Amino acid sequence: MNYQPIEHCGQVLWLLADKAIYWPARRALLVADVHIGKAASYRALHQPVPRGTTEATLARLDSLLAAHDCEQLIILGDFLHARTARAPATLAKVDDWRKRHKELKIVLIRGNHDRNAGDPPASLDIQVVDEPWVLEPFALQ
Length: 141
What we know:
The protein is α/β, with parallel strands linked by helices. The protein is 29% helix and 28% strand. The longest helix is centred in the middle third of the chain and has 15 residues, at 53-67.
């Protein structure tokens, strides 16, 4: 078993080893601090960092979604790392990923990086809300 089930507020949640929570009753996967484009943002500042972090992040999300029966992905803040994460190559990778998951409802609860990076492009079909986002019995942020 690669998760730890817990019960909180009458809801069963699975704490996943891959830094996520699965909420079976809502068929929801919760992740935080995705930080798409983080490496590109650092490279824009002329800091040498490895390439491939966006692909690795999207692959991790793919694995989590494949392993769990999900109708929705809830991102608890910090989807894009910074405005420089909007590089065309980075957004093209995210757009391709989103097309593979077009039936998935995605909700982004704005975090501190989201306020600076701006909302994701509308083409990604991500619902963006301010924190806390109430999804009974929880207030997510």
